[in-house]
Design brief:
This protein is of the alpha/beta class. The chain is built from 8 helices and 7 strands.
């Protein structure tokens, strides 16, 4: 997966609590096992009207936020079913960072495995970031994973906590397969020894 080191982007404000995974990517789009192509259906029922036209009131359809790579969201983001398609859809759309006061555990874990940084902040900090995000394209946030900071357009800085192992994986672009491949020399050595010791296996 792509490394995450730092990101500067317009942030899209979504002050909605309990955004569940069916809102992120509705069930009718779960037929694929590919990680690509889901971005066009992200937040489908909020982004589009029944006739398929864009809902002009939805934040990601507004000109200022069409290219947003950061989402500032309400409490308990990613709740509901455990579908991994939710972070796939966010990533395919271009969202690399989601900031909220809390996340559902499974969604939170799935984000790290797919190159998305979920950041937990306090309610007061979220209010500040939401205010920044609501300024539109004239205001950007900078998320720096190395220093664990979020810098606002006025220079204000918020620090956040993250598990050191998850930080290491994101900064080095390591998903579960990548972590396994880091041990390839040891795995190859073990298999060679086993083949010599037990050639009948």
């Amino acid at each position: 997966m792509d490394k995450f080191t730092s990101l500067t982007s317009v942030a899209a404000p979504m002050p909605v609590i309990n955004v569940d995974t069916d809102m992120i990517i509705p069930k009718q789009f779960l037929k694929t096992i590919k990680r690509t192509g889901l971005g066009k259906s992200l937040f489908y029922e909020m982004r589009f009207n029944e006739d398929g036209s864009e809902n002009v009131d939805f934040v990601l359809n507004q000109p200022a936020y069409r290219g947003a790579n950061i989402l500032v969201a309400g409490d308990n983001f990613g709740c509901g079913s455990s579908r991994e398609h939710a972070p796939w859809a966010l990533l395919d759309y271009g969202i690399r960072c989601v900031i909220s006061t809390s996340f559902a555990d499974i969604f939170y874990n799935n984000c790290f495995k797919n190159g998305i940084l979920p950041i937990v902040v306090t309610p007061d900090e979220l209010d500040r970031l939401m205010d920044d995000a609501q300024r539109g394209s004239n205001a950007t946030l900078t998320v720096d994973l190395e220093s664990q900071t979020i810098k606002g357009p006025d220079g204000g800085t918020i620090t956040f906590e993250i598990d050191p192992f998850r930080k290491h994986c994101l900064m080095n672009g390591l998903d579960d397969i990548g972590l396994t491949m880091e041990k390839a020399p040891s795995i190859d050595s073990f298999e060679s020894k086993m083949e010599a010791a037990r050639p009948w296996v």
